UniProtKB/TrEMBL annotation:
Single GO MF annotation: transferase activity
Self-association and partners: Monomer.
Protein EC: 2.7.1.175
Pathway, per record: Glycan biosynthesis; glycogen biosynthesis
Record keywords: ATP-binding, Carbohydrate metabolism, Glycogen biosynthesis, Glycogen metabolism, Kinase, Nucleotide-binding, Transferase
Protein name, entry field: Maltokinase
Length: 441
């Protein structure tokens, strides 16, 4: 009986990965009672012959308060069934469970050694999450629940706990996690760490700087506008280099030889071919992009590889009163776990942040009546902050040699190619933002 309302409800959730496709079948693989009125479900969803699994904390009440009406899934008899992450009374169970290392019917809740958890904090769901759901407990903790389940230890749990154990700066302190066995493998269900209540999102800070620049009258250079961001970009570059250093110290490293570098360039080229076939606006840039990829194929030196962030941009960093903190080490959620845990050149992260500066500079120009007039100012802002970030990265110990410059450019262009396809599919009016990456620099 529960499968029918779940199938109707799950397709409307922001974190559901199969939007726009028919649900062929939904089944409940696991249904565990956690405490009175709270169950943990693992739901299998079949679409077009493939299966995805999601977790749901299911609440049960005979009366549903107005504050939970938006979380209603359906009714069975006289019982209301709802998404219990929105119920602060029920979600106290998570804190209690982690604080006391509770094991229950296959679920294991753990706290980081020597971490004291204040179980009196009440929860609130953050509204900005896409692929996951995050609960903020007071001003102390944030617990991310991984909605779509992939067997294995989530990279965010693995990386943050390892770096924190080393006393590494620039990461938020971990407190606990939830796990279970899925396909015989330890699988992360959720991860809780310090909530940075006095921090500001890097993307928001960058956009404020861009707005100040566009609003300045007379039109001042970016260095003289009131919200100049370059000093923060410099600090962020240094913090990024330190995080890469800590990752290299905490996890295995390796090198890839020139023939493997060539295979990387070939993979870039294949993605470019598929993208150009789909997006006509990209085709006039193909020759220039392929030329950049060819420069990578000419490299003869070994390339160091290590664990990296994997999905690095301004939305993944927070500015505290004292420094930058890096968040969300889980990598790109849509990619296989093995790929997210693989070793890459740290230049992949550097390229991701450089692309983010370009996006911040031009984000406000989409649909803007003065976009053509403001474009040079956008380019000036992006160039200034990209240069500051790279300077900070070098000051922090990050290495970008002359040979690395070709690889960095290829990573950037490959990211921009991906962005072009994404915007063409989802926000066609934004496609000019990534297309600007292919102009000569």
């Amino acid at each position: 009986m529960l499968s029918e309302p779940l199938a109707a409800w799950i397709g409307r959730q922001r974190w559901f990965g199969g939007k726009g496709r028919v649900i062929d079948e939904l089944s409940i693989e696991s249904d565990v009672e956690l405490t009175s009125g709270l169950r943990h479900l693992i739901v299998a969803v079949w679409q077009e012959g493939s299966r995805d699994r999601y977790q749901l904390l299911l609440g049960e009440r005979t009366e549903l308060p107005d504050r939970l009406a938006h979380a209603l899934i359906g009714t069975i008899g006289d019982t209301y069934l709802y998404d219990a992450v929105h119920d602060s009374e029920r979600m106290s169970w998570l804190l209690e469970g982690m604080a006391h290392d509770v094991n229950g019917n296959g679920l294991r809740l753990r706290h980081v050694p020597d971490a004291a958890i204040d179980t009196s904090q009440r929860s609130l769901v953050l509204g900005a999450e896409q692929s996951n759901t995050s609960l903020v407990y007071g001003d102390a903790y944030i617990c991310k629940l991984f909605r779509r389940l992939i067997p294995g230890v989530n990279p965010e749990l693995e990386i943050v706990t390892a770096l924190a154990a080393r006393g590494a700066p620039h990461v938020a302190q971990p407190y606990g996690w939830i796990e279970t066995d899925l396909d015989g493998t330890d699988t992360t269900l959720g991860f809780m760490q310090e909530f940075l209540s006095n921090a500001n999102d890097g993307w928001d800070l960058a956009l404020t700087s861009v707005r100040d620049l566009y609003a300045s009258l007379p039109e001042l250079p970016a260095a003289e506008a009131g919200g100049d961001f370059a000093a923060e970009s410099l600090r962020l570059g240094s913090a990024t280099a330190r995080v890469h250093h800590e990752l290299a110290a905490a996890f295995p490293t390796d090198v890839i030889e020139s023939h493997e570098v060539k295979r990387m360039a070939e993979a870039f080229r294949r993605k470019l071919g598929r993208a150009a076939a789909e997006v006509p606006e990209l085709r006039r840039h193909v020759t220039a992009i392929e030329d950049a990829y060819h420069q990578v194929e000419l490299l003869t030196h070994e390339v160091p590889v290590q664990r990296v962030h994997g999905d690095y941009h301004l939305g993944q960093v927070m500015r505290t009163p004292t420094d930058w903190v890096v968040l969300d080490f889980e990598g790109e959620p849509g990619q296989p776990l093995a790929e997210r845990r693989a070793l890459y050149s740290p230049l992949r992260d550097v390229a991701g942040m450089l692309r983010s500066f370009d996006y911040a500079a031009r984000h406000l120009l989409a649909g803007h009546s003065q976009a053509e007039r403001l474009e040079p100012r956008a380019q000036e802002w992006a160039d200034r902050n990209r240069a500051a970030f790279l300077e900070g990265y070098a000051e922090g110990g990050g290495v970008i040699s002359r040979g690395d410059a070709a690889l960095l450019r290829a990573f950037e262009l490959s990211k921009a190619v991906y962005e072009v396809v994404y915007e063409a599919r989802n926000r066609p009016s934004w496609i000019s933002i990534p297309l600007a990456a292919f102009r000569p620099r």
